[in-house]
Structures are given as structure tokens and as C-alpha cells.
Amino acid sequence: MSATASDNGAGAPPKQPPLLRDALGRVDVDSVPYVIQWFLDYDQRVAIVKHPRVEEVFQWKQEQSRKAGEEVFIFNRAEDRVAIGIIQALAENPTEPALHHWISQLLNALETASQANEATTEAYALDLRGSPSTVKEAEKIPSQRGRTEFLLNCWVETLCSAEVRVLGWLYKEFYGHPFVPSS
Predict the structure, then answer these.
(1) Mean model confidence pLDDT for the chain
(2) In sequence order, what DSSP letters do the residues of 1-66 get, joined into one string?
(3) What is the widest separation between alpha-carbon atoms in the chain?
(4) In this structure, are residues 134 and 57 in contact, taking their beta carbons and an 8 Å threshold?
(5) Which residues is 27 bridged to in the sheet?
(6) Nearest-angstrom CA–CA distance, 112 and 40
(7) 87: how many CB neighbours lie within 10 A of its CB?
(8) What is the rounded distance in angstroms from the CA atom of residue 87 to the CA atom of residue 163?
(9) Torsion angle, CA of 92/35/173/75, rounded to 10 degrees?
């Protein structure tokens, strides 16, 4: 899937998200939502969550959770879920080691989902680029369980990609050096 980040008619996007700092140079955490919005508007790897096929998979996932009786907050849009996930990750991982560990977990989940999707796409000759509907294309997978796993992995892959992108950038801003995965 591909999506083009919008420039909102303002020409070239600003070079850097608007992460504000106080007079002592400390990060103003109240500016984090503006950073997230910047990524949603200008970074293609994050803006993909606004693509109609991603939104379709996200809504499918929410419906599956609701049908299963899971107590989950229902979001209006995928991009809202991504934004809240990033803010929660920062709140729950307030130190450098904790945030490093969380980003590492996201990368592991991303790799697992990506590999599973690649194998499934190949095994069932899915045309994800040509099909207007990922959910409809998943119907080529003969088992309900296989379809469910594939669509969940589609969502996990997109969600983790977006969160890693933003959290990785914030990590560098917070701690003064880029995130480097542990060996």
C-alpha cells in the first residue's frame, strides 16, 4: 500500500516536527501531539495509516474485537489509535531504558508480522497493490483463522511501523542520540 503525505497546500513540509523546548532546553511534552500530527501530515511511513485500505483493516479489527466481547476503546479512525498509542507508550515508558525496550518490542512485532504477511501473500497469491480492498483480497485465504491472522498482521505491521517511526524520532530528541536496536 502506498499513500502520499499531504503538504496541505503550503508547499514543502517543514523540515522538522515542532517539538518545543523550555528555556532550559527540556522537551515540552505538551508539544508531542503536534509532532504526531506532523508525522501524520508529512511522513509517508506514518501517513499510511490514513490510507483507505489501512482504515478498512483497522475498522475490521475493531469490529472483530467488539464481536469477541473484548473490552477495547473504539476509535473513530486508525490515525487516532496510532496517536494514542504513541502518547501511551511515552507515558508508560518514561525513561530511556524503558522506551528503548518498548521500541525494541515494536520492532520485533513488526518483523514477525511482516514475515507472516510476506509468506501468506506469496502462498495465496494475494494482490495487495492491485486490490482496492485488503479485507476482500484476504478472502482468497481458505481458512477463517488464516484470514484473521493475516488481517491482524496487516494492522500490526502498519501500527508498529508508524509508532516506531515517531517514537524513534522522539527518542533521539529526548536523549540526544538515535535509537539503536540491541544486538
Answers:
(1) 91
(2) -------TTSSSPPSS----B-TTS-B-GGGHHHHHHHHHHH-HHHHGGGSHHHHHHHHHHHHHHH
(3) 60
(4) yes
(5) 21
(6) 24
(7) 14
(8) 10
(9) 20
d(CA 113, CA 12): 33
Of 66, 67, 52, nearest in space to 136 by CA = 52
> What is the value of pTM for the model shown?
0.88
DSSP-derived 3-state class of residue 40: helix
Cβ of 42: how many Cβ atoms within 10 Å?
18
* Cβ pair 46, 39 in contact under 8 A: yes
If pLDDT is split at 50, 70 and 90, which confidence band does 113 have?
very high
Predicted confidence (pLDDT) per residue in 71-100, tens digit: 888 899 999 999 999 999 999 999 999 999
Residue 27 has what pLDDT? 81
> Is the confidence at residue 47, as pLDDT, over 80?
yes
Q: Examine the pLDDT at 3 and tell me if it is beyond 50.
A: no
